[in-house]
């Protein structure tokens, strides 16, 4: 524990380590330079390219967020510029790496902070967060979390309440301006780090944590439950028609524990989708691995308590994943951004312990360099997957146990390129894997519609709404088919059904007005 007691001391720490920060900055830029040409992908389209709060300046309580504010500023100055957004992500990752160094220096000293910061900055699991524009919200969450912890520790070391107030203000602002459930894990991080890594009475530590817990509870009950969690449940349920939703919570949790551990320890199978593999043997493997992790954490609590707590902190940052109702995916690389800090500390402590035991002083440098080279190769190659949608979905096909969603998205990519043959092939393959996947039927029907095969298009859209009655796009597709068949009455009926499911679907509203105006 290195008691930095003021902002001035932090400034001195930064000045004393300027060469390290220059090296870190240069290497991060080198790692991610090939990501800046990456196109707008997946959530980038509705989140930035077609977001009315960004393009038209239409703001609501739900859209007034750091991410949207940043998008709006970039759009106003640079237009639809993906390169600028990628540069911002890289810059924020660099800043976060500096903050991680400060935080870890305050807790563990320079030796651990130096190695762990480089491992964090280079960890391949962070490539999704840095290279995917839409994941920058997790970068911002990292920034505010690190700042909150740094100022909290300044308060604890100096006993100056101004630092506690600053930490608390940053936290409350982050709840409002970040607006997602991951931010609410911060009070737990504060309390556990204070409890096991700082000196002082338990009663005071609880008292110091209360100012963070109270606004968290207020925020949860007044806003999150209705405005964030319920929409997330609907979103996950709407888009996730795979076997995942039918897996009980007690079986889903072990998969989240084991899959997250695999991504941190062996980040070789990186993919935008990480789904539960419901095959019996794979579920059993996930359960066994999760039991090993839990058992190891309990054992270490009595043998090496701080190492045990670091493992626990990894999973505390992933708390939303373990919710009884599915409000997130079972795991995702972007969820692990803060967890990667604690994992990097664990690896660093193990390396240093082995070095001290063997009395081999050069071992930490050697092992760290080997890891950084391996991590660098993985990041640079992974960045290529984020260049365009074709690369992204092709990279995910063989890494997903039931890749119907991946094949569906790959089909959509080919559809946008007017490659209807490959589009139809991928949609059909998605249906073969999951015969109840409504989105694939809908998209295959779109291909038939584009090829003017209206009979097959109608069958596809009808199958889609039979499987998923709230798939408003398929109702709209049926209206499009009836227009081509010159059946105005049926088209109007289907448009009304579309708007019944989604009253805000502008395409349906516009087309309905047009049809009603025809005498």
Give structural notes:
The protein is built from 25 helices and no strands. The chain has 519 residues and is mainly α. The protein folds into 2 domains: 7-390, no CATH class; 404-516, Serine Threonine Protein Phosphatase 5, Tetratricopeptide repeat (Alpha Horseshoe), CATH 1.25.40. α15 packs antiparallel against α16. The protein is elongated.
Helix and strand layout, with pairings?
Blueprint: H1 7-16, H2 18-32, H3 44-49, H4 52-55, H5 66-78, H6 82-108, H7 110-122, H8 127-131, H9 136-158, H10 161-178, H11 186-197, H12 202-239, H13 249-265, H14 280-303, H15 305-316, H16 339-358, H17 363-385, H18 389-397, H19 404-416, H20 420-433, H21 438-450, H22 454-467, H23 472-484, H24 488-501, H25 506-516
Helix pairs in contact: 2-6, 2-7, 6-7, 6-9, 7-16, 7-17, 9-10, 9-11, 10-12, 11-12, 11-15, 13-14, 14-15, 15-16, 16-17, 18-19, 19-20, 19-21, 20-21, 21-22, 21-23, 22-23, 23-24, 24-25
* Total helical elements: 25
Question: Roughly how many Å apart are the termini?
Answer: 80 Å
Structural class: mainly alpha
Largest sheet: none
Low-confidence stretches: none
Mean pLDDT: 90
| Helix-strand sequence | HHHHHHHHHHHHHHHHHHHHHHHHH
**How many domains make up the coordinates?**
2
Shape: elongated
How big is the Rg?
25 Å
Beta content comes to under 5%
Query: Helical content, roughly?
Result: over 70%
């Amino acid at each position: 524990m290195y008691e930095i007691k003021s902002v001035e001391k932090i400034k001195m720490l930064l000045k004393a380590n300027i060469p390290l920060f220059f090296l870190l900055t240069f290497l991060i830029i080198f790692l991610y330079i090939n990501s800046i040409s990456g196109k707008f992908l997946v959530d980038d389209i509705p989140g930035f390219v077609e977001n009315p709060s960004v393009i038209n300046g239409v703001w609501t309580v739900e859209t007034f967020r750091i991410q949207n504010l940043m998008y709006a500023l970039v759009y106003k100055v640079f237009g639809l510029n993906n390169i600028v957004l990628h540069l911002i992500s890289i810059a924020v990752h660099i800043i976060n790496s500096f903050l991680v160094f400060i935080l870890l220096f305050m807790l563990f000293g320079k030796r651990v902070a130096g190695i762990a910061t480089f491992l964090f900055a280079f960890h391949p699991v962070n490539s999704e967060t840095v290279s995917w524009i839409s994941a920058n919200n997790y970068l911002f969450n990292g920034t505010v979390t690190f700042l909150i912890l740094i100022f909290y520790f300044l308060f604890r070391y100096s006993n100056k309440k101004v630092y506690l107030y600053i930490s608390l203000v940053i936290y409350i602002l982050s709840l409002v301006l970040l607006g997602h459930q991951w931010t609410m894990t911060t009070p737990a991080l504060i309390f556990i780090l204070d409890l096991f890594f700082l000196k002082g009475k338990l009663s005071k530590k609880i008292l110091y944590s209360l100012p963070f817990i109270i606004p968290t509870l207020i925020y949860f009950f007044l806003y999150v439950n209705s405005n964030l969690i319920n929409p997330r449940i609907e979103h996950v349920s709407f888009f996730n028609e795979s076997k995942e939703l039918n897996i009980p919570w007690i079986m889903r949790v072990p998969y989240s524990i084991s899959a997250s551990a695999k991504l941190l320890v062996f980040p070789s199978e990186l993919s935008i989708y990480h789904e539960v593999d419901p095959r019996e043997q794979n579920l059993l493997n996930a359960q066994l691995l999760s039991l090993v992790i839990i058992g190891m954490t309990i054992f270490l609590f009595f043998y090496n308590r701080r190492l045990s707590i670091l493992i626990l902190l990894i999973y505390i940052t992933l708390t939303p994943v373990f919710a009884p109702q599915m409000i997130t995916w079972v795991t995702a690389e972007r969820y692990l951004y803060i967890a990667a800090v604690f994992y990097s500390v664990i690896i660093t402590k193990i390396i240093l312990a082995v070095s001290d035991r063997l009395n081999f002083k050069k071992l930490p440098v050697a092992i760290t360099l080997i890891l950084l080279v391996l991590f660098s190769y993985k990041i640079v190659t992974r960045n290529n997957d984020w260049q365009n949608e074709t690369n992204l979905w092709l990279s995910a096909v063989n890494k997903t146990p039931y890749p119907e969603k991946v094949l569906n998205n790959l089909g959509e990519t080919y559809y946008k390129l007017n490659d209807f043959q490959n589009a139809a092939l991928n949609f059909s393959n998605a249906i073969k894997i999951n015969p109840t996947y409504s989105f694939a039927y809908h998209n295959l029907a779109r291909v038939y519609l584009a090829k003017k095969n209206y009979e097959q298009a109608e069958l596809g859209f009808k199958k889609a709404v039979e499987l998923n009655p709230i798939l408003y796009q398929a109702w709209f597709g049926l209206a499009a088919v009836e227009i081509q068949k010159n059946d105005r009455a049926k088209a109007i009926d289907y448009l009304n059904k579309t708007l019944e499911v989604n009253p805000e679907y502008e395409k349906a509203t516009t087309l309905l007005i047009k049809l009603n105006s025809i005498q």
